[in-house]
């Protein structure tokens, strides 16, 4: 399979890439800004499974104007078709709403919503039929969930990503393209630790990565256009 994972230099994306790499002979494109970490990931993955090919692409997903010209051109050097896209890169700035700067707001909307929009659109011509696009959202952006102070714009952007998923599934139903959204619960990553020091996460990063990989590979025939809360708490 040919797989693209954004935000793979740490946290959930890093572990997800490792799990895809451990199984089969996948070609995996991993995207983030931190080149040394992406290279570390490549070394780890190819050491574990020599059949895996992992291609790091250093790209700033806030650079929304160059997706088609720079990012897709780079991707096409390694693969010509795509089976799975994991839109995982995200940005959380935990601040009271009235203290957010314009830059905080723009960056969170860009990374959590505009970037997946532009990436999916740019990758359309390369997508196989079937292909599974998995958007990583948050329980904070899931309708009716318990909300957290300081996350208004982050959660709103993640809710937008969930809505995008539903709309694209409808617009492209019966084409072989499948879109789903995982609204994940708290997972023990640097993002969570930096934003909420001392908070006890529900899931380990590796557990969440296992879930995402299994979902991306095996569940596209059971779900389309769904926003799935990956959480053990209610509401
Ligand atoms: N952890 C949780 O509890 C939790 C809960 C709900 C939802 N989520 C969502 O799950 C996803 C992964 O979260 P995580 O906790 O693993 O986050 P993380 O540890 O902060 O990792 C975020 C990843 O996104 C990449 N990224 C950030 N800005 C970027 C940019 N401008 N261009 C390219 N890549 C960029 C980072 O790489 P570089 O810095 O190298 O660019 C990093 O690889 C996010 O979408 C997050 O919102 C997480």
Question: How would you describe this protein?
Answer:
This protein is an alpha/beta fold and 235 residues long. It has one domain (61-230): NAD(P)-binding Rossmann-like Domain (Rossmann fold). It is built from 7 helices and 7 strands; from the N terminus they run βαβαβαβαβαβααβ. The radius of gyration is 17 Å and the shape is globular. The site of NADP nicotinamide-adenine-dinucleotide phosphate (NAP) has 29 residues, from helix 1, strand 5 and helix 6.
The helix-strand sequence is EHEHEHEHEHEHHE
Main beta sheet: strand number and arrangement?
A: 7 strands, parallel
List the uncertain runs: none
Ligand species: NADP nicotinamide-adenine-dinucleotide phosphate
Q: Report the average pLDDT across residues.
A: 96
The CATH topology annotation reads as Rossmann fold
CATH structural architecture? 3-Layer(aba) Sandwich
Q: Number of helix segments?
A: 7
Number of domains: 1
The CATH homologous superfamily: NAD(P)-binding Rossmann-like Domain
Rg estimate, integer Å: 17 Å
Shape: globular
> What amount of the residues lies in strands?
15-25%
Report strand order across the widest sheet: 3-2-1-4-5-6-7
Distance between the termini: 36 Å
- At the first level of CATH, the class is Alpha Beta
Summarize the structure.
This protein is of the alpha/beta class. The protein has helices spanning 11-22, 35-48, 67-75, 102-123, 152-171, 190-195, 205-218; strands at residues 2-6, 27-32, 53-58, 82-87, 127-138, 177-184, 226-230. The longest helix has 22 residues, at 102-123.
């Amino acid at each position: 399979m040919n797989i693209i994972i954004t935000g793979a230099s740490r946290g959930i994306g890093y572990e997800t890439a490792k799990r895809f790499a451990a199984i089969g002979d996948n070609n995996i494109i991993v995207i983030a800004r931190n080149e040394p970490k992406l290279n570390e990931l490549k070394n780890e993955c190819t050491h574990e499974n020599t059949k895996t090919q992992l291609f790091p692409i250093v790209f700033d997903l806030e650079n929304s104007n160059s997706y088609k010209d720079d990012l897709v051109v780079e991707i096409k050097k390694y693969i010509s078709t795509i089976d799975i896209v994991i839109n995982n890169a995200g940005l959380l700035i935990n601040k009271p709403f009235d203290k957010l700067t314009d830059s905080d707001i723009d960056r969170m909307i860009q990374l959590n919503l505009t970037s997946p929009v532009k990436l999916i659109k740019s990758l359309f011509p390369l997508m196989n039929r079937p292909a599974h696009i998995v958007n990583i959202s948050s329980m904070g952006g899931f309708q009716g969930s318990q909300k957290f102070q300081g996350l208004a714009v982050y959660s709103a952007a993640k809710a937008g990503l969930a809505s995008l998923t539903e709309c694209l599934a409808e617009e492209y139903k019966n084409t072989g393209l499948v879109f789903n959204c995982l609204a994940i619960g708290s997972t023990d990553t640097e993002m969570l630790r930096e934003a909420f020091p001392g908070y006890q996460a529900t899931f380990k990063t590796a557990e969440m990565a296992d879930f995402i990989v299994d979902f991306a590979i095996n569940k596209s025939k059971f779900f389309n256009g769904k926003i799935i809360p990956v959480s053990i708490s209610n509401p």
